[in-house]
Amino acid sequence: MAKNSLERYTHYYERWASNQLSRQKALADLHQMRTVHMEKLSDIQREPESQLKFITDAWQQIVECRRVLKWTYAYGYYLPEHEQAKRQFFEYLQGEAESGLERLHQCAEKELQQFLSADGPSKEFIDFHTKLAGLTGVTKNYFENLVSALENGLSDVDSQAACSGSSSKNGGSSKAKGGKGKGTSRVGGSSKNVDSTGMWTCEYCTYANSKHSTTCHMCHHQRR
């Protein structure tokens, strides 16, 4: 019992500490970007620094997300283990947010290097701009949804359970209007990418959305 408690504490503490260190490094990288790399990149790509603001925006988002992610591990540690539905929902939201942050951090830290060491303007820099700005927006949405869910005490789990119970009481499948036989009606969009749970995965940010939504709840891209 004591061993399990210690292992659980160590698990959450190590991840808290890891994100704290990552945030400190991101702050240092942001400072270096502002004081050194922005001017250098402006000269190489022949663009004014005002047009490169998307890079510092990305680093500011990384710093803020590391701060939030760090404290979600403290939240997870104190989340009662018997509330399995809430724990699963929390871990799902946390995992999606963390994956998005890692993609953003990788892009800002690693993929930028080729442009800092280039001899002159690169056509690929436009694609990099689009990718980094897109990842910044998507990651921001992931974390806003995570924070909102935590502020509401993960109450969406209770709402979904209530809806499921109501649906069960009203019977299973129903006849579609104007159709013959039983089946479920499709609301907007195609059935492409819909999995067995009735969720569809956004092709842009990989967020799992309700089958009834026509735009991604996370990045707001249209369902295809």
TrEMBL record:
Residues 163-191 are annotated as: Disordered. Coiled coil: none annotated. Keywords: Ligase, Metal-binding, Zinc, Zinc-finger. Residues 196-224 form the RanBP2-type domain. Transmembrane segments: none annotated. GO terms for molecular function: ligase activity; zinc ion binding. Residues 164-176 have a biased composition (Low complexity). It comes from the Eukaryota. It holds the Pfam family Ariadne. InterPro entries: Ariadne (IPR045840), Znf_RanBP2 (IPR001876), Znf_RanBP2_sf (IPR036443). This is E3 ubiquitin ligase. It comes from Prunus yedoensis var. nudiflora.
